[in-house]
Specification:
With about 475 residues, the protein is of the alpha+beta class. It is built from 13 helices and 22 strands. Keywords: Acyltransferase, Lipoyl, Transferase.
Length: about 475
């Protein structure tokens, strides 16, 4: 009997959970190597998880719609030629998932022996994992026999063996004493799945009591406590304790929405942000594009592609806005400049606001940018954008005019240092050559990190883009 229990891998840098959207197989199905088994949604994208083994699906370890923690069992495969295990059989072998960085390293070495020859999304092959794992110093142990010839080994340890701080935090949040948890990893290493199992077996009252440290209690909290309701939670009757209103819905902040909330909170708390804006006459740009569309309708870029080209030219002239602030090993802040521009753009999808980026956008013409804008919008809306496509931007362009608004004080897409917003284009009275005329007007808004530049640099960049929109032919002649 050989049952492989596959653990949910880290499908992107630092992700700790994913929503199980859909099973692509059922228990008892026969599968091949690399066959997709499940579709999961992370904070970054929708991902199909393939199996590194052929055989029969023995068990599916979650329900559709359930949030699954990284390193928690996802599915078990009974390998070809094996019989179904009996209840008294030894526990199944659990395949430990690789991290995203380990996956990239595994791709540089051809795997050998058992398992898929491919480096799969988020995990890689068993041999690749073995090559990257560190050897741990052996701990004190005692070897005994169970009387049936099997050798049992019990380890004597003075402290819990935990590497990941996320596992410690999960145990602390759930009120689990980590020293009382038996680890199922190598050498007794405690994994997230072990904390999950300990939570399931712990008495609810014990978990709540252990996870609620003594702290100052507000009058509202005291009222909730006296009525048997935890602060911020709804009572059994469905009436909110603070407002007194019936609770209509309760939606967890998870997946994409959680990632957006985290990034926006960090942006507001860490970046000293300033905003400048300007009204722009886009009449000449619209007339130029209309003339191009008449002669070559199939190859005429959209307005956003032209504006993106002007933005790229502006960033080349004002590179301070195409940077990032990081902290070195000593804890000192550094401004990191880049040899190239990855232009991100906001794309509204059913899963929330995505910001895919065009890699090395400085090398593309307006037509090339238009193709990439279309392609990345489609893959983002389909949930198929890669982690790299969604996290590698160095500057963001946001066309919120499609929502029918004129302006917005946009939040910088952390950890970038600036974002340019474009409002809707509409007819407005405007003075041209001393006379009042009806022109196609829009508003540009630039939010920037005041740590990397002053207002003069930000205004210079914004004015450059505005002038390019107002006189596109002269600017495009130099690009």
């Amino acid at each position: 009997m050989s049952v492989k229990t596959f653990l949910l891998p880290d499908l992107g840098e630092g992700l700790t959970e994913a929503e199980l959207v859909r099973w692509l197989v059922a228990e008892g199905d026969t599968i091949e190597i690399d066959q997709p088994v499940a579709e999961v949604e992370t904070a970054k994208s929708m991902v199909e998880v393939p199996s590194p083994y052929a055989g029969t699906i023995h068990e599916l370890h979650g329900a559709e719609g359930q949030m699954m923690l990284v390193d928690a069992p996802l599915f078990s495969v009974l390998e070809a030629g094996s019989s179904a295990p009996s209840p008294a059989a030894a526990p199944a072998v659990r395949e430990v998932a690789q991290s995203y960085r380990e996956e990239e390293r595994a791709g540089a070495v051809a795997p050998k022996g058992e398992g898929s020859g491919n480096v799969l999304i988020g995990y890689g092959t068993p041999e690749g994992l073995a090559a990257t794992q560190r050897k741990r110093r052996p701990r004190s142990s005692m070897t005994t026999s169970d009387g049936n010839g099997a050798v049992l080994q019990s380890s004597v340890r003075s402290a819990a063996l935990v590497i990941s701080p996320l596992v410690r935090k999960l145990a602390r949040d759930r009120g689990i004493n980590i020293n009382n948890v038996s680890g199922s990893g190598a050498d007794g290493l405690i994994l997230r799945s072990d904390i999950e199992a300990a939570t399931a077996t712990a008495a609810p009252a014990t978990v709540v009591a252990a996870s609620s440290p003594a702290q100052h209690t507000s009058p509202e909290d005291a009222t909730a406590k006296d009525s048997g309701i935890a602060s911020g939670a709804s009572p059994v009757s469905g009436i909110d304790a603070r407002s007194g209103l019936p609770v209509a819905t309760r939606t967890p902040i998870a997946g994409v929405r959680k990632a957006i909330a985290t990034a926006m909170s960090r942006s507001r708390s860490e970046i000293p942000e300033a905003t400048v804006w300007v009204d722009v006459d886009a009449t000449n740009l619209l007339q130029m594009r209309s003339a191009m569309k008449t002669s070559d309708p199939e190859n005429t870029p959209g307005l956003l592609a032209f504006i993106a080209r002007f933005v790229i030219a502006g960033l080349i002239k004002y590179p301070e806005l195409n940077t990032r602030i990081e902290h070195n090993a000593a804890g000192d802040a550094e401004i990191i400049g880049f040899d190239g521009i990855n232009l991100g753009f906001a794309a509204q999808t059913d899963r929330g606001l995505m910001v895919p980026s065009i890699r090395n956008a400085q090398d593309l013409s307006a037509r090339g940018l238009n193709k990439e804008l279309s392609r990345l919008t489609e893959v983002a809306r389909a949930g198929k954008a890669t982690v790299a496509e969604l996290t590698s931007g160095t500057f963001t362009l946001n066309n919120y005019g499609v929502f029918g608004v004129d302006g917005s004080a946009a939040i910088i897409n952390y950890p970038e240092v600036a974002i340019l917003g474009v409002g809707r284009i509409l007819d407005k009275p405007w003075v041209v050559d001393g006379a009042l005329a009806v022109r196609k007007m829009t508003e540009l808004t630039l939010a920037f990190d005041h740590r990397v530049c002053d207002g003069g640099t930000a205004a210079g960049f914004l004015r450059f883009v505005a002038d390019a929109i107002e006189n596109p032919a002269s600017v495009l002649a130099d690009l």
